[in-house]
Specification:
Keywords: ATP-binding, Nucleotide-binding, Protein biosynthesis. Pfam families: HGTP_anticodon. One of its GO terms (biological process) is histidyl-tRNA aminoacylation. This protein has a single domain, classed as Anticodon-binding domain (Rossmann fold, 3-Layer(aba) Sandwich). It is built from five helices and five strands; from the N terminus they run αβαβαβαββα. The radius of gyration is 16 Å and the shape is globular. By secondary structure, the protein is an alpha/beta fold.
């Protein structure tokens, strides 16, 4: 009975044009270019230790556009991007999935930035 009620409610919500978030992940860590698997995993570990739900692709060198599409399709509100130049500079790119607004943030300030940003985005 629960499943049927849930399915009917879900259908009505979609008919109204409201997007249903299909993931509890708050941040998708993506890589731009080759050779950034370790930095992606390190960022995920940092976010997990801080209580932020994060995930990354299991592929060694996933396509950047595919990763962004994954975030949009699953309703993940924030994408954190890292490439070779960002690793060298000690920064990451933080992108709001809904607005596509992107900000460059020093890696050491990432957790504080996300803790401030996520509560406002997850209400959307």
């Amino acid at each position: 009975m629960f499943h049927k009620t849930h399915t009917i409610r879900e259908r009505k919500i979609r008919q109204q044009g409201i997007k249903i978030r299909s993931s509890c992940t708050s941040v998708l860590v993506v890589g731009a270019g080759k050779g950034v698997l370790e930095p992606r995993l390190a960022l995920c570990a940092l976010l997990h230790k801080s209580g932020i739900r994060a995930e990354t692709s299991r592929k060694m060198n996933p396509k950047f556009l595919s990763q962004l599409q994954h975030a949009e399709e699953h309703g993940i509100p924030v994408v954190v991007g890292v490439g070779e130049s960002e690793v060298q500079e000690g920064v990451v790119n933080v992108r709001c999935t809904a607005t596509r607004q992107e900000t460059q943030v020093p890696r050491v300030q990432l957790v504080a930035h996300l803790q401030q940003l996520l509560p406002t985005l997850e209400k959307l």
